[in-house]
Amino acid sequence: MICQECGKRPSTLHFTKIINGEKTEFHICEVCAREKGEGIPGAPNSFSIHSLLSGILDFDTVASKGLNSLKPQESLRCESCGMSYAQFGKIGRFGCSDCYNAFGERLNPLIKRIHGNTEHSGKIPKRSGLRVQCKRQIEQLRAELHRYIEAEEFEKAATVRDQIRELERKMQQSS
Amino acid sequence: MKNAGPDSDVVISSRVRLARNLRHQPFPLLATTAQANEVLEQLASVSESGVLDRFGPFTTIRLKELSELDRRVLVEKHLISPNLANESRAGAVVLSDNEAISIMINEEDHLRIQCLHPGFQIREAWKLANEIDDSYESALEFAFDEHKGYLTTCPTNVGTGLRASVMMHLPALVLTQQINRILSAVSQVGLTVRGLYGEGSEALGNLFQISNQITLGQSEEEIIDNLYGVAKQIIEHEKAARRKLLNESYRRLEDRIKRSYGILRYASIIDSKEAAQRLSDVRLGADLDILPQVSPQIYNELLIMTQPGFLQHRYDEKLSPDDRDYKRAELIREQLNKQVDNGGATS
Known about the structure:
heterodimer; A: mainly alpha; two-stranded antiparallel sheet; B: eight-stranded antiparallel β-sheet; YacH (chain A); Protein-arginine kinase activator protein (chain A); cadmium ion binding (chain A); cobalt ion binding (chain A)
């Protein structure tokens, strides 16, 4: 079969597109596939999930305009890898794991749209899990420490302080 | 995949993939060559440190050491992704000798653990991937957030980083025109359906891959159970459709299958699309005992062997599309005739 685009080379890519029940068949050669690119599975530069994501993100940009409660997103940038929120919006992928923290709650609408949820409920790695646990314990102990100091129970406060130091040391060792 | 596994007349294979990243390292997307190589060496040295020993012998292959053709063959065997094949800078794959475990380094994420089991063994594949993950975690620290879970390059993988899929051969559901109804139902329960070697609802060789779409908010066990339950239903529907075809239109079914077998055994030129369709018919014939002389396993092997990259690799030359169609027909004839000479199916 001859390529339906150029009418010269033999077609090597055959695929069928079905959009809303409307069926279109394509028979094209590799050269034309490369030129057409978009929408052809297996073809170089084919339409990717990331361009789709950035579509969702653009929507967010428009939707959040006029809401001045959040930091203007142009200046939002991950300090670890330098990726800005605008760049993330274009490519739909993060530069490093710190981006999640840097972009913070602004990501939640996107993540909710993808997963229908924003809270992880699966596996916790033992190492980081330990740190998460330590962090929570330290927060609790700090509150306790504060109470003892206010009540002027300094002996008890000193014990709690030592416990906090011990946990902090444990955390540092694990990281 | 010599051993066919449970429900292997419908399910070709079950696969689980886990995406993981190292803390304090930029993702491959933004990493400089030096940073990407640092990640590669760190992960390669952990892989070779003995933590994987209990899972069998492994080989680490650096992509820059492979020719373009060798990479394409790995892609067609589904051992690496097209994405990794293009990552010649610092990409690598740690491959178990039986090819059941393939661990990609510097693909979209630093680490992608993939386990492939023959037949319907999605739970077993998850168990193995989980254990391998634990082994890596004993030596490394992964990027993890208590709210967002495992942090990944693409927000579609965040949370569990888990993608579980089953590859199913569904010729009877296609023949009885039930497939679209079933596939659209599947997409309503958080699962995705894709054809083999490409997206879209017209699958090559009646092969469909069903996988989870959501990675955050559900536990790994919930994701696996959901996929297991839905796949089990589809298996039952396919088996019912096969019984219906056998009972109600045996002659037409037999004719179709034997016609395809005849074409594959005697054709001189065949393109990949026709080959996939005919092979699917023959596979169905083998599973239904209409072609007792053919081993069902040959379908899986031939479907991979007749892909363009694999053909070129086998014949060690740059083939034009015309030559490919000729060699493809030749290869299929050889393989099918070999089975007849051996006196029928061995499995």
